[in-house]
Amino acid sequence: xxxxxxxxxxxxxxxxxxxxxxxxxxxxxxxxxxxxxxxxxxxxxxxxxxxxxxxxxxxxxxxxxxxxxxxxxxxxxxxxxxxxxxxxxxxxxxxxxx
Length: 98
Hints:
The protein is mainly alpha-helical. The protein has 3 helices and 2 strands, in the order αββαα. The protein has helices at about 25-35, 55-60, 80-85, and strands spanning about 45, 50. Strands 1-2 form a two-stranded antiparallel sheet. A hairpin with a 2-residue loop joins strand 1 and strand 2.
């Protein structure tokens, strides 16, 4: 049975962080829940005191500035990092400028 207890974490702008632990400990599940790729089966997840279920995906990634880089990514090899990142905006009405 997978579960998390209360976790309170503060992050400093401009720093990078790593989530480490044994295989099967729930690292990917936790990140998927924070990134709204999965939903928590019980309890709540809050970001800045706001229940994650009430935050729209667009606001989560553009206003809260959450970014997740997946370990099994699919990049186009002969394109730049910028070109690969811009693929996310194809068909969207979002501005690339921030």
